[in-house]
Design a protein that fits this description.
The complex is a heterodimer of chains A (295) and B (228). Chain A has 295 residues and is α/β, with parallel strands linked by helices. Chain A has two domains: 176 residues, D-Maltodextrin-Binding Protein, domain 2 (3-Layer(aba) Sandwich), CATH 3.40.190.10; 88 residues, D-Maltodextrin-Binding Protein, domain 2 (3-Layer(aba) Sandwich). Chain A has ten helices and 13 strands. In chain A, the strands form four sheets. In chain A, strands 10-9-11-8-12 form a five-stranded mixed sheet, with helices on both faces. Chain A has a three-stranded parallel sheet with strand order 5-1-6. Chain B has 228 residues and is mainly α. Chain B is built from ten helices and no strands. The termini of chain B are far apart. The chains are: A alpha/beta (295), B mainly alpha (228). Chains A and B meet through helix 4, helix 5, strand 10 and helix 7 of A and helix 4, helix 5 and helix 9 of B.
């Protein structure tokens, strides 16, 4: 009996200490974030963290080299660069950004439940998505394209894929689109991730990998793949990458201003080229830099 | 859109029923494969030859402790991608076969253990009597031990079958894109506005598939049990 009491007291003490540690942590962050001591974290969430609250949570892909990629504690890629730029315009320094993994199927969910403040994750603007979330941007217009082995000259576009093998990622319609619109006799392999597709492309079991051109360029630009693959450069769809924000957010205008400033200052162009270096990839010039669609 | 219009929209735009049919087919072929391989393994594990016992034990320990996702990924990336072994020229069929083999290989370990638990319900005296009248091991197993063992193992075999039905969704990582979890992921990606409904559809679908299997195996295990 006595032992039980001691244990309970110890657990209670430990819990109290943990709670105390948490609260002192959050007040530290508040003071770090510009001395606005009156702003509790809840309030800053309600106002969307305008002008230097504590942190901003941004959803990106963690597994897409060249766009959103986690290397240890570092995050690299085009989406990350753009997100950092936009966050800075909204008044957040890079160390106030909290990166959150946003896999394709969870993006709406993350925004609706308020787990992220915005999403930069190759997020194409579509009508269905527009119903439940808002979009700023687009900040990039990608097109579906093909990645082939660097020495393969037989594929110059989706029409050349008849009788060839093609790899794409489970749950994407990009491969189906090729089958329906361009090449009936193409054979499809669906893998869990694009890295797996690149593996079978390298071993020769498939002849091409398909998805948005900038994702392919990012894959080809990773150090391990340098010089092995090339993007065909004949895009055949139009994907407007938007910045996902919660429905009814008041930040849309501010984000669009930041994107416009980024494009005008030439930073946009340098972000693109830095993340696709060595692949010979250039964005589709007819559509890029993108025209913002307004809020 | 009201709820019924949403359901109508989802069913007309995505082949939900067809995706369940693919999983049923995967389960059917994998169950047959797992049953055959599992029986052979169980025979090996209860056989008098130590080398066979060891081989069976090694298989069960290795396969049972490897995640199914890894086995199926290994099939596609390793056996097909690197070793370049292909079962059919048609990719859809090829990866379907790979998925069936992966599922069968994995569940054979569980079938083997279920059967071995069935063998343990057969009194030792039965085996001794069978050997005493001069039956060799295989004949004794075929005529005396395994018929009783199967009847004692109906319930655990049913559980293995239920696990197999649900695990057939792992075929998604083996490039079987027409099965339920792949279709569900596609639906969620393009209709994130109906995510709760999509989950409900597939949850209900699996309940409809799995509950009868449980009921049937429970009834069978009662009816077939050897009264001792």
């Amino acid at each position: 009996m006595r032992n039980t009491r001691v244990t309970i007291a110890a657990v209670a003490a430990a819990a109290a200490l943990t709670l105390a540690a948490c609260s002192s942590d959050s007040s530290d962050t508040d003071t770090d974030a510009g001395g606005d001591a009156d702003t509790t974290s809840e309030e800053s969430e309600d106002t969307g963290g305008e002008g230097g609250g504590d942190t901003i949570r941004i959803g990106i892909k963690f597994d897409q080299p060249g766009l959103g990629y986690q290397e240890g504690s570092e995050y690299t890629g085009f989406d990350v660069d753009v997100a950092t730029y936009v966050a800075e315009s909204l008044g957040y320094t890079p160390d106030q950004i909290e990166w959150v993994s946003a896999p394709s199927a969870q993006r709406e969910n993350l925004l609706q439940t308020g787990q992220v403040d915005m999403i930069f994750a190759t997020y194409s603007i579509t009508d269905d998505r527009d119903e439940v979330v808002d979009f700023a941007g687009p900040y990039y217009v990608a097109g579906q394209d093909l990645l082939v082995r660097a020495d393969d000259d037989s594929i110059t576009g989706p029409e050349d894929l008849n009788g060839k093998n093609l790899c794409s990622v489970t749950g994407s319609t990009s491969a189906e689109r090729i089958k329906e619109d361009y090449a009936e006799d193409v054979q499809l392999v669906e893998q869990a991730g694009y890295a797996d597709c690149v593996t079978v492309l390298e071993s020769g079991q498939v002849d091409a990998v398909t998805t948005d051109d900038i994702i392919l360029a990012g894959l080809a630009a990773t150090p391990a793949n340098q010089g092995k693959f090339k993007v065909v450069g004949n895009p055949f769809s139009e994907e407007n990458y938007g910045i996902g924000i919660p429905e009814g957010s008041d930040q849309c205008e501010a984000i669009n201003e930041a994107v416009t400033a980024m494009i005008d200052s030439g930073d946009w162009e340098s972000f693109v080229s830095a993340n696709t270096e060595g692949t010979g990839y250039t964005p589709n010039a007819d559509l890029n830099p993108p025209t913002l669609r307004g809020c | 859109m009201n709820l019924f219009e949403q359901i109508g929209y989802l069913f007309s735009n995505y082949d939900v029923v067809g995706s369940f049919w693919v999983n049923i087919q995967l389960t059917f072929w994998a169950a047959i494969g797992a049953m055959i391989l599992g029986t052979v393994l169980a025979l090996m594990r209860v056989s008098p030859a130590p080398s066979l016992q060891w081989a069976g034990l090694t298989y069960v320990t290795l396969v049972r402790n490897t995640p199914l996702t890894i086995i199926i990924t290994m099939g596609v990336l390793g056996v097909w991608g690197q070793l370049q072994i292909t079962f059919a020229d048609n990719f859809d069929l090829n990866f379907f076969i790979f998925a069936c083999i992966g599922l069968a290989v994995y569940h054979a370990a569980f079938v083997c253990e279920a059967l071995r638990s069935g063998v343990n319900t057969v009194p030792l005296g039965q085996a001794e009597a069978a050997r005493a009248i001069g039956l060799p091991f295989l004949t004794a197993a075929r005529l005396v031990i395994f018929p009783q063992a199967f009847r004692g193992a109906v319930a655990p075999l049913g559980n293995t079958l239920i696990a197999l039905i649900k695990n057939s969704t792992v075929a998604a990582v083996g490039s079987v894109a027409t099965e339920t979890s792949s279709v569900m992921r596609t639906m969620i990606e393009f209709n994130g506005n109906m995510v709760v409904l999509i989950f409900m559809i597939f949850a209900v679908g699996y309940v409809i598939l799995v509950v009868p299997v449980g009921v049937v195996t429970t009834t069978l295990s009662r009816k077939l049990a050897v009264a001792r």
